[in-house]
Amino acid sequence: MAPGIVGYGVYIPRYRIKREEIAKTWGGRGKGENAVLNQNEDVVTMAIEASFNALEHAGLNDAKEVDAIYLSTDSSPNIEHSSIGIIAQTLGARDDIDVMDFTTSPRAGVAALKACVDAVESGRIKYGLVIGSDYRPASPGSNMEMFFGGGAAAFIVGGKDTVADLECAHVYSSNFRDNWRGQGDTYVKDYEPRFTRQYGYSDHIFNSTQGLLSKTGLTVDQFQHVVFQQPDARLPAGIAKRLKVTPDQMKLGSIFQDIGDTGAGCLFIGLSSIFDRAVPGDKVLAVSYGSGTSDALYFSIREPIEEARDRSKTYDSYVASKAYIDYPRYLRGKGALTKDEKPAELGVSPLSPLMWRAGSELYRLIGAKCLNCGYVNFPPSQRKICIRCGNTQFEEVMLERRGKVHTFCVNYYMPPGFESPLPIIIADLDDGVRHRALGTEIPPEDVKIDMSVELVLRKLASEDNVNLYGNVFRPIRIQ
Amino acid sequence: MGWNKVALVGVGIIPFGELFEKDWEVMVEEAYLNAISQVDKGFDPKDIEAAWVADCRPGAHGTQTIAGVSLVGNIGLAGIPCTHIENGCPTGSDGFRNACLGVASGVYDVALVMGAEKMRDKSTAEMLSLAAQGHPVIQRGETAMTMFAPQAMRHMHEFGTTKEQMALVAVQNHRNGVYDPYSHYRYEITIEDVFKSPMVCSPLNLLDCCPQTDGAAAAIICRADLAEKYTDKPIYVAGFGMGTDTFYVHEKENFTEFVASVRAAKQAYAMAGIGPDDIDVAEVHDCFSITEIIDYEDLGFCQKGEGGKFIESGKSDLDGIVAVNPSGGLMSKGHPLGATGIAQIAELYWQLREEVRESNGGGDPSVNEKRQVKIRNGYGLQHNVGGRGISNSVVTILTRNKT
Fold it and tell me: Does A144 lie in the same domain as A281?
């Protein structure tokens, strides 16, 4: 049996912009909508939410069983410095895992997946976590701004109890450039689309798919589900016609109209949507494209998919959970509309030893439970004596991520660099531990005492191009 | 009865406000000169054996952050010991408390306490940014407002305290401030004015908050048995207390009281041998309207949860059962952290000597006297609460009763 996917999880940001809203400013026509990031989200925060969902779906209690984390993205916050460190720390992964970054192309996700499957097949690792998370930067007014969205999906790859096996893969690669971002470029660029659509996307996908079909002896009509890389709405429809793929085969994997082009996350999210409904025995064709390379993948759906079906949040539940924003708010979210002001200095650098000492406790939410009185001290790196009873013996506990608001305020006059108005919430977590954090993804007037909230990792600030992360409260988004 | 080991023999403050034309040092020098010139029988600065300087945010006025102790040199007292105190909102009152300990120890006979704060030498944005610095994750975005507003939310939720009741604190203290020539703001406001002012940090509107104010204050204390050298009407330190609480907001158990205040008050009452009913006049911490409502409860002026009703029924008025913030409080007078507590002590000094009319270095006596409280038992109470996580509080009880 081929190695494959033992669990998967998606994350789609809550905010959406309708393409017609973008067209109001720049002209043109737009149908559908893009999922877009809030100011405090990035590739890292999306990757973490998707990974938690994937671990849950795989039935793994925590990330300790994961032997590798492979992250694919074209929009990492850093050119040098891997984002896997904070992802691994937040998930609670071991420190002897294999970590690898895949980038420079929207097909990076598939490259990561193939590498992970190989690692499992070789026996070098048992479980690997592969993440595709992207929110590529599009210039205001560009064609790509109409198309680019944000989202992430994560796969747990393993050798047994798979929900979908990777049976075969075929690559077609050439020296071809359609979209690119050079050193120092803020935004992704594109070359004449009438040329690149045909000789880039269409021909590469056609060739990789033909290669896969001849390798496997299968025909296109034998696949119940087909998903292509989706840079827009027209390209997948065109290649489908060329390969004689029917709209019915494309139905579950088509995500562009709901969330936009999610780059390295696209194929993973499309596959997750298919896995949500597919039944054992189904064959799935998934074909990537980016920067002159296309991978055609053949998955077969396995029996365990039925048992795992309701273990985590579905793609549909994320698509349904949304709030629309207008164009200026969207620009602020992607950092294209900023105030000319100096943000409040943190006083303590995100790189300081203080953050290094407490990092895992703050991201993962680890507390020190007093063995005498039971009070959970937080953060443990700063509390060696129980603040309630003075005892010095503790056990490490993981804090619950959900709770109820005890009290709060909404500050309308935050210092420079903060979002304002900003809710600040003090909540009692389900384990009784009191926690204080900023609020997010809620209209300020909707915060109420006793409302249910959950802690999610978000970007708190950025200083010297180094992001500072921490947990914030949001209303429970999907039960 | 009271502890009464230390006597207050002279106080001086300067009119609070946006004192753009005055250096921090100049503010202190003026307050000091006012203090020594107000000593009834005259005062020789050579009598001062030690000084305490209270300044919470030395970095906020552009001079060196460790300049506090050098201040004695500026006023011609270079040579004597001087200690700099930084302790959040109770910085001034804690400076006073430490000076009292110095005198009561027998090491010094006469001591000087000076408090000053520059709140307007940096822009509002810069001051907010400074205030928000703390643990970059655990205290992200924490300013004074975000520590006190959640208390208001919870107090409203648990006890039905209303926005109207909170607004009454601002109305009362602005009314009193009209009679105080040292006050930053000297105009009356209505409940409606409070509601119409911009929402700053829900549920607090702008007029639920004290302003940003520059100011300075000074006090001269001595061994109680030496007081008659300086005055025939000394005010004695009957007791004091300082209470603390845990540092982080998430470590607080109770969001409807300030535990530090309760602890400070308990110590001070025990030391003075009196209870809340004995207090004629109180200068309490009203950085925000909700703070004063909770203060009534923490200081024992009313039962837990009844702070809103307490002000509503007029019990904190100038002619109420305990006159609260006759000076106009932080709300009108302003809150220059290092000066605040000492200025409160100055107000109580004048109130207990029943000389509000004359003692002020300015103002119309016929206006000033409108805030004179009727002194029955002879006790006044000073209170501050604040610090990161609202984690410290100082209460000082003063009395004109010699025993």
Answer: yes
